[in-house]
Amino acid sequence: MPLGLRVKAWWEGYDPDEIKKRIKDRTPVPETVENPVATETKKITVDTIDPWDEETIDIAQYIWGKGFCGPGGPEFIVSLSKLLALSPEMSMLQIGAGLGGPARVLADKFGVWMTGYDSSKTLVDKGNKLSKMNGMEKKAVLEHYDPEDLESFGRKFDRALSKEALFTIQDKNNIIANIEDKLKPGGLFLMTEYVLGSDATIGKDRYKEWVQGERQKPYPVLAEDMVELVKNNRMQVRVSEDISTQYIEMINKAWAGADAVAAKLARDDDGTQKIQILMREAEFWTRRKKLLESGDIKLWRIVANKKSTGPSMMSDW
């Protein structure tokens, strides 16, 4: 199916796969019984191999902007962090640093010293190169980490940020406990995270399709469960809100120019390969967008502060 038609169908709210079936008059292929051994092997591959490569990173930046590999550009990052009262005297830990775009934005805007962690070595290497190119190799440093085998983030931090990073981590309590441990007393923790819309979500076909199509296996929980995890780790939750509508708008805005990106890529020597990657990314974000629009998955924002050693006072906030 031509890219322009597929993107147009997705943009106007139609199912590209259904249109493709009608165009080609193709009947659905019967489902086959999964081989349990093959399924387990696939799971191991997904969980251990870095899902990012140079080509995919390049395409992501065409869509989301230089230094970004997902929704939320500079204006959104600054607005998102307005309650953190950042300053040049502060240090900040970030989980899910990606290419370091958010870290560089916050370091540039507020002077805060950023240390970002990501599970993708490819993103970390590319992100550190971008920080160096922007003269921010000391202000916005990225490091690779294994979220399932976490011991420590090293130093203490004044602030912490997790941007759509915990939904792929099965033991969320462990990483939240580590974040709390590395926050200074009274320190603030900001999180944006994919959460389940309801318990019924996990039984739906579109949810199962989303799970299969993700770069890493997702383990989302209900928003109230995420809030409880934060509270159980000695933090006070100050903000807990659904920001899905704003997130969907950012996805729509970014992908509105996909046809122009495709036209540009088509002029490159390896344009066919790049367009295939663009198509793959379009399908990836279409699945996420559908779940967000249906309410089966939500994008949640939480702001919490670490309890100080003394009695809790409103002036701490």
Please identify which CATH superfamily we are dealing with: Vaccinia Virus protein VP39
> Unreliable segments (pLDDT under 50, ≥5 consecutive)?
25-47, 310-317
Order of helices and strands: HHHHHEHEHEEHEHHEHHHE
How do the strands of the widest beta sheet line up side by side? Answer: 3-2-1-4-5-7-6
Q: What's the CATH architecture name? A: 3-Layer(aba) Sandwich
- The figure for the number of domains is 1
Overall mean pLDDT: 86
Level-1 CATH class name:
Alpha Beta
**3D shape:** globular
How much strand? 15-25%
Q: How far apart lie the N and C ends?
A: 54 Å
Kindly provide the radius of gyration, computed on alpha-carbon positions and rounded to a whole number of angstroms.
20 Å
Indicate the structural class.
Answer: alpha/beta
The number of helical segments is 13
Helix proportion of residues, in percent? 40-55%
The name of the CATH topology is Rossmann fold
Give the strand tally: 7
Major β-sheet profile: 7 strands, mixed
Describe the structure.
- There is one protein chain.
- This protein is about 45% helix and about 15% strand.
- With about 325 residues, it is α/β, with parallel strands linked by helices.
- It has one domain (about 35-310): Rossmann fold, CATH 3.40.50.
- Strand 1, helix 6 (about 100-110) and strand 2 form a beta-alpha-beta unit.
- Helix 4 packs across helix 13.
- It is globular, with a radius of gyration of 20 Å.
Quick take:
With 317 residues, the protein is an alpha/beta fold.
Task: Please tag this protein with its features.
alpha/beta; single chain; disordered C terminus; 46% helix; globular; Rossmann fold; 317 residues; 13 helices; 17% strand
